[in-house]
Amino acid sequence: MTPDNATTVAKSDSLAPERLDVMTYRLIAMGFVLLTLVIITGAAWAQYTWHRWWSWDPKETSALVAWLVYLIYLHGRLLSWPKKATAWVAVLGALAVVFCWAGVNFLGGLHAYGKPEEGIRTAAAHSFSGMNGTEALLSKGFLVSYLAAWVVYLAAASFRSRRAALVGTVVMGLGAVLQTSAIILRSVSAGRLPFGTGYEYALSFAWAMSIVYLIVHRRINTPVFGAAALPLLLGILAYGFLLFPEKGVSPLPVALQNLFWLHLHVAIAIVSYAILIVATATAALYLVRARGAEPRGASGAEEAAE
Amino acid sequence: MAKEPTLETKAEATELSLGEWLWRTLQSVRMTIYVLPAIAVASMIGAVIPQQRPLEYYTMLYGARRGWVIAHLGLHHVYTSSWFIILIALLLANLAACAVRSWRRSALEYRGPSGEALARKLTGPRMASCWFARTTRPELQGRLVHAFGRPPGAVRVEGGTPDPVRIVGRRWSLAAYGRIVTHLAIFLVALGAVLGIMPWTSLDEEVTVSEGETWKDSGKLGFDVRLDKFRMDYYPGTGMPSLYASDVTLLANGTPLKKGTATVNKSLAAKRVSLGQSSWGLSGLRIKVTDPGGREEPVTFSLVSSADAQGNRAWELSDTPAGHVAFLSDRKWALVAQSFTPDAVEQGGKIVGSASEFPRHPAVLLQGVSGLEVGKHQFHDLGWLRKGDRLSFEGHTVRFEDVIYVSTLSARKDMGLPLVWAGFLLTTLGMIVMFYLRPRTLLVQLTPAAKGGGTEIAVAPSGRELFESDRHLIEQACEVELKQGTRPQ
Q1: Does B7 touch chain A (CB under 8 A)?
Q2: Residue A265 gets which letter from DSSP?
Q3: Does A117 touch chain B (CB under 8 A)?
């Protein structure tokens, strides 16, 4: 996969199925390499902290499951599976990633510190509790921006308005800037990156996804992509804001005290997850755009040439 | 319609012997595709269903019928079940076979297509590029050979007498081995994991010992472990632990071998065995009784732990007489521990419960028994006694010294660890090479132009298109302004 040798697709049509398929492959290839690094750095950290590099803990296992699903995607392409089939595998991979990120917190195990401690009503009533005034303001700002960007993208896609699509991207960019500011503010007050709690993890994950989205948006410059990807981003934020009542900076659990491994492992994880979730949006769009058609995947030889 | 050639259809089955069929099946990507989802589903089951718990636990958690199904299908120990191990073994065999196949394919890719094969492209429909330069052919040839010959490339010159000359350059040819490196690296990780669980190469032992006691080695570690003290610290102003530490003395034949501290984030190593802090608990309470004459007498009560389905722990006094009743040495009176709370919560001057499992504010509810020497027992409620506090009873002073911790240390010796790290490193390198460095061959044909003393430059790449970076390389090597020319006849 090299950028200068991609399959030639008419650049005028951002939603051409071939273009979406190639983009999905590129994103998954990159996300897969990073997911491998997530597992490797996680193993190294576990060896350091728990003196055992693999324990079949639910978090470790679900990361392995996500890795296996994407491995199936890559081998499916090698076997020239129908592209729709590989796109479905990509969607399945996203489910595995979401389970690894959030679902596994409900199963206990060594990583249970990410589990929400209160019900959704309690947490929703304290959406900004624990934050200082500036951070709460920035948080409200990026939440409103992302929500507004999604609405504008939907309108732009419905009315095929380029101007509205541009407005949507600008609002989305504004949201990313506000969220970056909130993360910087929180990092300064905590003395570390915001990777310590379930809320912070969701915040960082959503931030990484907004950045990845904006980068990919340069290649798939259409409001339909925004309309498809932003609900995923808003879902991540909803999980963080609505399920964790206390959002103040709290000390790290003993197992997370090594800042080198915490920063390295979680930073790679959020970027990897973000790329793979955005790949889901492109795969879903591919499935919508390729309705009726049944294109075969690139053969192994062609894949190698790409 | 002709079937598209794929990796699988290249080796169409004719008449195969069993061995050949097995070998082909093992090295097929299709087998990988069958095994991977099976492992993924099995792993997911293991992640969702808590593993290695007593069978009663599953009945309690899932109900009688589902608990029975889990127990009888062996879903409570997925990762040690024979069917899961068979799946992993199949995947590893598949990996190894694929690595062998990749080796052959990589060797072919390393050599790349022959100059003749590429030359046919120059006149075929897939010819990529053709330029014209004003520089002479010998000078261009020298520059291109120099540019292509630089690592990680290789170069070969064909023809030239008479013209045209053909320069075959190989770019990133060693990257063809990325796939085999990745497959073998994963195999290496698995091999390391197997070595890590083999009892004759590695050690995985849990050392559980109470404060002041010594864990006796059965010959596996090579030393005994005495827990001198277990320490828990908390973040100021919170109930969150910030440190779990076991101060231990390692003893060989009764003599101290090493003294040190094992924490969650820092293990203690001796005789190639590393001791890490794994878990903790409470095994008892330490009380000190001082009689009117100033003579001190230690008293201990025993604690037992319990846990609910969510894994929340609680500590209770042992219900055995020896566990919660302590007779003093004068045999005149006794102390009875009625209740214990590790993290006392007070309301209206009364202790009403425990805020957490952590012994931040431990308290014990005591009762005194007098009249033992005359056989007329009299019970006296002494109330709650907090850690560090004192109370008086019949001239005696009773002081709650501290809780007695029990620490679990994981003793590990993993001979497979170097293989695992090497495998992880190679996996990363192999993947980067596989996804981002494409080996390719390209042919540059230099033909003196019929007019003007320049040179026609025709390029045929092995892939479908000429890489932009290769085009830049040729342009920079030629150091001339390249102009679009005509296809050589």
Answers
A1: yes
A2: H
A3: no
Long-range contacts of A154-158 (CB under 8 A, 24+ apart): A154/A223, A154/A227, A156/A223, A156/A226, A157/A222, A157/A223, A157/A224, A157/A226, A157/A227
Determine, for residues B242 and A254 on separate chains, whether the beta-carbon distance falls below 8 Å: yes
Share of chain B above pLDDT 70, in %: 90
Residues B119, B58: one domain?
no
Answer yes or no: do A51 and B278 touch at CB < 8 A. Answer: yes
Verify that B40 and B89 share a domain, yes or no.
yes
A1 and B278 within 8 Å at the Cβ level: the answer is: no
A1 pLDDT higher than 50: no
pLDDT tens-place string over residues A134-193: 999 999 999 999 999 999 999 999 998 889 999 999 999 999 999 999 999 999 999 999
The sign of the CA dihedral B379, B383, B384, B388 is negative
C-alpha span between B131 and B459 (Å, rounded):
8
pLDDT of residue B2: 36
pLDDT in tens, B247-300: 999 999 889 999 999 999 999 999 889 999 999 999 999 999 988 888 888 999
Q: Which residues pair with B290 in a beta bridge?
A: B296, B397
What is the domain extent for residue B166? Answer: 112-172+438-484
E strands, B348-432, where? 350-354, 363-370, 378-386, 390-393, 396-413
Q: Report pLDDT for B211.
A: 95
Q: Does B47 touch chain A (CB under 8 A)?
A: yes
The per-residue pLDDT for A5 is: 37
Determine, yes or no, domain membership for B2. Answer: no
Nearest CA in chain A to B276: A51
How far is it between the farthest Cα atoms of chain A? Answer: 58
Range A125-139 average pLDDT: 81
pTM for this entry: 0.82
Residue A76 forms contact with B (CB below 8 Å) = yes
- Asked whether the beta carbons of residue A54 and residue B193 sit closer than 8 angstroms, the reply is yes
* Residues 196 through 255 of chain B touching chain A, CB cutoff 8 Å: 204, 235, 238, 240-244
The predicted pLDDT at position A7 comes to 37
CATH of the domain at B458: 3.30.310.80
A41 touches B at CB < 8 Å: no
